Write the structure tokens for this entry.
Amino acid sequence: MALRPHTWTKFSSNGSSCVEVMLTSSEVLVRNSNHPDSGTVAFTFAEWQAHTEGQKLGVFDLPAGTL
């Protein structure tokens, strides 16, 4: 799924813990969909690209037995 500019896109793996991501003209914003007024985290495009590449490689996977 590709991000759409200036539109919050919700991602969830279990239905209750969700994040929303929005692409702007200069950065990528992330917020908690259950508490959208609690603020956002902003990433540059380079930071977002590095993060998504790390995700694909499993760099951020939790250790077995964590959940």
The helical segments are 45-57. Residues 20 and 36 are 9 Å apart (CA to CA). The first strand starts at residue 9 and ends at 12.
